[in-house]
Known about the structure:
This protein is α+β, with helices and mostly antiparallel strands. The chain has three domains: about 60 residues, 2-Layer Sandwich (Dna Ligase, domain 1); about 120 residues, D-amino Acid Aminotransferase, Chain A, domain 1; about 110 residues, CATH 2.40.50.140. Helices cover about 15% and strands about 30% of the residues. The relative contact order is 0.17.
Amino acid sequence: xxxxVKPLLQDDAFIAKSKPRRKRDxxxxxxxxxxxxxRVEPCLALLKTAPPSGPDWAYxxxxxxxxxxxxxxxxxxxxxxxxxxxxxxxxPAIAAAAKELGVGTAILDGEAVVLSAEGRSDFGxxxxxxxxxGGKRSSTESILFAFDLxxxxxxxxxxxxxxxxxxxxxxxxxxxxxAIQLSEEVQGDGTGLLANACSLGMEGIIAKxxxxxxxxxxxxxxxxxxxxQSESFMIVGYEQSAAARGGIGSLLLAGxxxxxxxxxxxxxxxxxxxxxxxxKKTLDMLKTRTPVVPLKGxxxxxxxxTLIAEIEFRGWTDDSNLRHxxxxxxxxxxxxxxxxxxx
Length: 343
């Protein structure tokens, strides 16, 4: 039997407790009927080094997966990626769960993840469930953690405050288990919550202003605070190695500065032999004699800037290279991942 997953709430001594659900307020005024949008550009979280404090902020777990919008319509369900691509066929379990919610029209905003045995979201496992970058497989083990409700029962909710949207979402998903679950709001001091999330091996937390409408882009209404930095970088080549499994000793990475590519270092950990073999085969097809960054090395193979990798790292060196970088997986074009922009 499926059950609600609460990765951050496994320990009874954990200071962050789930907020009790409230019943819908029958005195809430009726909203005017609004046409259902084909797509809503997602609200994105702004990266901060420390969480905000005060009663105006709500906190959630930061999930490590694919951002999805679930459109529930009278004619069926559509699952749209952050980049606007229809991936309904890639997440059949989530689509089936959406049909079972018993609502005529709705748009749910959330993150599709695959959970580890410890209840942590595992980006690499999600990628593998989809068959890797460019794969055609469907992910049957993924779960959508829904954290916002943008449209409901004929009403556009994007101009209403977050507290109202969350209230309706909690009501809609009350008792929901399985492939669609509520991303629980957790109570507690932001600094203490971040420390607990990091101690449990989570990626970090999200802070959201309770009074904010749903605004597309990175406006500062939502903030992300990470335990370990994780960003997207372009793979611009690799270093050949006869000793390394798969033939790749390290990947050559670059970020953006305006319209230019800037080298940020080489990374040789985090990928398995199967990953290395796929990367070598794909990068060899993208091979170019002219590197997009000013690098020289007899064992370097340069590639056209096409593959975007998600990289976990611990900071920056004095010469602006990534420190203790590790490979997490490739980003899909449909995920609309933005390459890290250097100051």
